[in-house]
């Protein structure tokens, strides 16, 4: 299942644990994940297909 970035932002407000964005992350949208509250992101295709 997908998780919209607004859910990440809500989770960041109540959780005191690292949140990692996984799936569909690339160089063009990684900043949106960080801005929403992700502590880190995981990229596979963005690195391999480059």
Describe the fold and architecture.
The protein is α+β, with helices and mostly antiparallel strands and 50 residues long. It has one domain (5-48). The protein has helices spanning 5-14, 30-36, 45-48; strands spanning 20-22, 40-42. The chain has a two-stranded parallel sheet with strand order 1-2. Strand 1 (20-22), helix 2 (30-36) and strand 2 form a beta-alpha-beta unit. The termini are far apart.
Annotation keywords:
50 residues, two-stranded parallel ribbon, alpha+beta
For the termini, the CA-CA separation is 26 Å
How would you write the strand order of the largest sheet?
1-2
Round the mean pLDDT to the nearest integer and report it: 94
Uncertain segments are none
Into which percent range does the helicity of residues fall?
40-55%
- Counting DSSP E segments of at least 2 residues, the number of strands comes to 2
The radius of gyration over CA amounts to: 11 Å
Biggest sheet character: 2 strands, parallel
Q: What is the percentage of strand-forming residues?
A: 5-15%
Shape: elongated
Q: How many helices in DSSP terms?
A: 3
| Elements, N to C (H/E) | HEHEH
The assembly state of the depicted protein chains is single chain
> How many separate domains make up the residues?
1
Q: Return the structural class.
A: alpha+beta
């Amino acid at each position: 299942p997908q998780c919209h970035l607004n859910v990440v932002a809500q989770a960041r407000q109540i959780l005191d644990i690292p949140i990692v964005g996984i799936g569909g992350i690339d160089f063009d949208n990684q900043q949106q994940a960080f801005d929403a509250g992700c502590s880190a992101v995981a990229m596979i295709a963005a690195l391999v297909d480059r």
